[in-house]
Amino acid sequence: MQVNGFPHTTLWYDPTQQGVFIIDQTLLPHRFEIISLTRLEDFCHAIRNMQVRGAPLIGVTAAYGLAMALAHDPSPINEAYAAEQLLATRPTAVNLRWAIERVRATVAQHDGAQRGAIALQEAEKIRREDILNGEAIGQHGLTLLQRIYHQHPDRPLNILTHCNAGWLAAVDWGTALAPIYKAYHAGLPVHVWVDETRPRNQGASLTAWELQQQGIPHTVIVDNTGGHLMQHGQVDLCLVGSDRTTASGDVCNKIGTYLKALAAADNQVPFYVALPSSTIDWSIDNGIDEIPIEQRHSKEVTHISGMDQDGVIRELRLVEQSPAVNYAFDVTPARLVSGLITEHGVFSATPASLAALQQKLAAALHTNKTV
Amino acid sequence: MQVNGFPHTTLWYDPTQQGVFIIDQTLLPHRFEIISLTRLEDFCHAIRNMQVRGAPLIGVTAAYGLAMALAHDPSPINEAYAAEQLLATRPTAVNLRWAIERVRATVAQHDGAQRGAIALQEAEKIRREDILNGEAIGQHGLTLLQRIYHQHPDRPLNILTHCNAGWLAAVDWGTALAPIYKAYHAGLPVHVWVDETRPRNQGASLTAWELQQQGIPHTVIVDNTGGHLMQHGQVDLCLVGSDRTTASGDVCNKIGTYLKALAAADNQVPFYVALPSSTIDWSIDNGIDEIPIEQRHSKEVTHISGMDQDGVIRELRLVEQSPAVNYAFDVTPARLVSGLITEHGVFSATPASLAALQQKLAAALHTNKTV
Question: Is residue A111 flagged as an active site residue?
Fold first, then answer.
């Protein structure tokens, strides 16, 4: 996607400098800065402190983190240590575990110094696939958006999104925003309602910035507003990402997603979730009971950062003395989800439909292996 | 209620200084400052800029504003001008109109200089009634809270509230928080989940401060969190205020209330609304179609104020370039409301039940007039 008019990705490996480069997303929308990650600690810090965030990008970053650790010390002990450190950074996104397990499976049959190079190749492959997945999600979502738009072709298509599931949450394209980018380039008149997404404001800071950089019409709203807009016919569909989806179609995503899904159901507004299939946790069925919900520091609620009139990024206190809690995600039950947009097409949020996707994935894996 | 251990109200008239004194609520929770209002412009400014806010307190403030204007110039022309200026400050809260009409009806049969004194007496009466109404709401709500608490007497009663409908929204006691104050003093173990309530953060700034000053256990959460808590059995009831309620029981309250009511219904959590009967607009039935929703300045969304580490209250920019909209209220349909706690008891949110309340009010008015 574009940054100041030039194409960009969120993460890339530079072999000449033997480092991974990322956008420090904690400084957006106020400052655009690139930083490099080389040591395992850099990768863990970047994931834990949300310099990179979003399920797909967390997975890619973790893969590179493990690969760089193996390039430095290819021993199985170091592999186990690095995997453990990376897994401990964020508990909810399933892509973290998925990416680490994938790199470990690839290096398992290899010995010695080549393990680092092989791991790095696998990380590169995960990165490339992420871009292709995002584009495929965009293409499948475009068909859906075109269909909904043509129900009311006299007015722009109003899409509400929560948090950031754009290209900043992946390597490029993103998940929930990928169909919107495709639709915009296909000439569909789109307008995006951007939930600010407290407490970390990824909507106001990242989604709004992304859309503004691509020139896509959008409006920032506080998280409380979506229900009112849906009551008044101002939302044609909701489109969000997912940090983990169960085999039955329950969707774990940024805290507050469930409230928007309830409002969508109450107002007959379609509620779609866009996700790469790597975000599906095939081992669990009941999202509310089985997905661990990350609790982050209460300071993210009681304090806020932004830019003052002198251009200095500052932190302010919002709450005096009172305690606060900070759950990062919630679970939207499958019954509230109209469909799951994946790189393999749109699936119903039902066990049967997702079982069909799982078979498709297994068949594709088998084909790849036998080729 | 208590401020730093001393009893306080939000607004009082001081005859020796011929002025009305209020707490400047825009400075809370960081600073506690009293300011005086004397000219009509002071009252309009205080309401418009939310130095006073909350439907009951807006009504009382408007009554005093009109009375002070009449004390200065008792002419009908000035009366009409002052009423018009005050009515234009906030479009949604019905108490504003109710209080102004009440003062105007009282002075209608009087001439000359005594009109100011009579208006002031009526404003004093509205103020006293507001305190009594809050206490009565508290008492009726207490019975309800005791009943819900005794369903699970092994753990504290968890109440979720949105925005501020505490004593700061009235003269004393408040509406939604009045039953909580009564319950706390009756020895019921209560704990309050405080929605921060973006964009103006009245929950984090006012409700949390109120509860902290009275020593009542509470936890601040972002507005996105309530659904997750309800899914996990951590909320025993929701209790909110109302800026305007229709004759059919639709409740207009701070933006985001509707989303909490949806989550309450989805998780079988009782959802109660506390309000003085003056908040009911008997002239309308359909809240979604008929209640005008105030749109406030987008800067309340794109910028935020708080206290920096040097104790200076500052404003920060959260959003770069992107536009924002700021709807201040939404409407919760009566079907999602478990009951309305008024100064005359708890009523169902149905036309029939509210018609009974209306008859009760008419009978009380008749009794007062014939006495």
Answer: no
Are B198 and A199 an interchain contact pair (Cβ–Cβ within 8 Å)?
no
DSSP state of A327: B
For residues A161 and A236, give the distance between their C-alpha atoms in angstroms, rounded to a whole number. Answer: 11
Distances (CA, A) of B291 to A81, A104, B329: 60, 60, 10
Residue given tokens 């995960």 in the structure block? A126
Give the single-character DSSP code of A343.
Answer: T
Question: Catalytic one among B236, B243, B250, B330?
Answer: B243
B219 with A318: Cβ contact below 8 A: no
Q: How far apart are CA B79 and CA B64, in angstroms?
A: 12
Nearest-by-Cβ selection for B262 from A254, A263, A321: A263
Q: Does A272 reach chain B within 8 Å, measured CB to CB?
A: no
* B247, B213 contact by CB (below 8 A): no
Tens digit of pLDDT per residue, chain A (371 long)? Answer: 999 999 999 999 999 998 999 999 999 999 999 999 999 999 999 999 999 999 999 999 999 999 999 999 999 999 999 999 999 999 887 899 999 999 999 999 999 989 999 999 999 999 999 999 999 999 999 999 999 999 999 999 999 999 999 999 999 999 999 999 999 999 999 999 999 999 999 999 999 999 999 999 999 999 999 999 999 999 999 999 999 999 999 999 999 999 999 999 999 999 999 999 999 999 999 999 999 999 999 999 999 999 999 999 999 999 999 999 999 999 999 999 999 999 999 999 999 999 999 999 999 877 765 44
